[in-house]
Write a structure and sequence with these properties.
Number of helices: 2
Number of strands: 5
Oligomer: single chain
Strand content: 25-35%
Order of helices and strands: EEHEEEH
Helix content: 25-40%
Largest sheet: 5 strands, antiparallel
Radius of gyration: 14 Å
Length: 114
């Protein structure tokens, strides 16, 4: 059973977009999914401070894994406008995550060009 993948785009102080992809069937106990979702959002929210700290230590847009909690990892991509793409996942390959962020960033740029 794999954990859900949570993707969030965060602006200066507010979430701009959220998407949760449940990669397993919902056969668990009632209310268990809700608790898991709240915990996932908490993990992403708590990683924001680590993202800010990591942003000062590198010039790369892809900050890689900034936090690990309960066999899950938080990977982050930071745009030039300080918009954060954050992905909570169960240890996807680094190249897969980097390609995902690059593709999302391409769509993000195209959306603002229009």
């Amino acid at each position: 059973m794999s954990a859900p993948v949570l993707f969030v785009i965060v602006g200066k102080n507010e979430p701009l977009f959220e998407a949760e992809i449940d990669t397993h069937s919902s056969l668990g106990a009632p209310g268990q999914n809700d608790l898991s979702t709240r915990q996932n959002y908490f993990v992403l929210h708590s990683a924001l401070d680590l993202v800010e700290k990591s942003a000062w230590t590198t010039n790369n847009m892809y900050l890689r894994v900034v936090d690990k909690v309960n066999h899950q990892q938080v990977s982050t991509f930071l745009t030039a406008a300080n918009v954060k793409f954050m992905l909570l996942h169960g240890g996807k390959g680094e190249e897969v995550v980097k390609n995902f962020f690059n593709e999302v960033y391409g769509y993000y740029v195209k959306a603002f060009e229009a």
